[in-house]
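Predict structure. Chain length: 197.
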Amino acid sequence: MTHATNSAPLERAKVTVEIAEGSDRARALRFIDKRAWEAHQCAARPLDGIVFAARIGTRVVGTLSVDFGSDERPFPLESIHRFDPALMPMPFDRRRIVQGGHWMVRVRGQNVSERLYAAVSEHLALRGIEWFFVEAKPHAYRRLLELRFTVVYIPGTLCLAHIPKDGMRYYSEDPKPRLYMVSVPSMRRALAEYWKP
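Prediction complete.
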């Protein structure tokens, strides 16, 4: 589930982005659940991977998740979308691809999305990851393009039978989410000014 909406202005303050662990992870997961209910009146897709949380003080103002796959552990999106791996912009090698999601931002004017994607792209580049596999509705897709990322559409079909009931609304309401691959090197080029010194 990807939500790229910005709302609730917050006074200018320092935004920090880190991998959320322990109580910070619990706080980030509550933020994700709350935003999913606000935006789509449904539960967010379950999350087993890493959560990057953007905070102002202790308040979570944005999230972006990363799931690593393997030959033994397909990405969660593979059960929700049917697609032909031959149509990918590179060989579908789960060692070079991650699944992204839970892109949710709660404030305007703080470059939270840019800071989240900069932190994620730095983390992925250090691990040799080249592509970020996501599903997005049109507003989130447009936002990815606004961020100047290289985004490739992956044709596929939704498999509603594999979606939990409490998350169905996101997938059943129009417009439906589509699959995309986002180039990690393009993220790093577009967001160079946000890298940590």
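Summary: The first strand starts at residue 15 and ends at 19.
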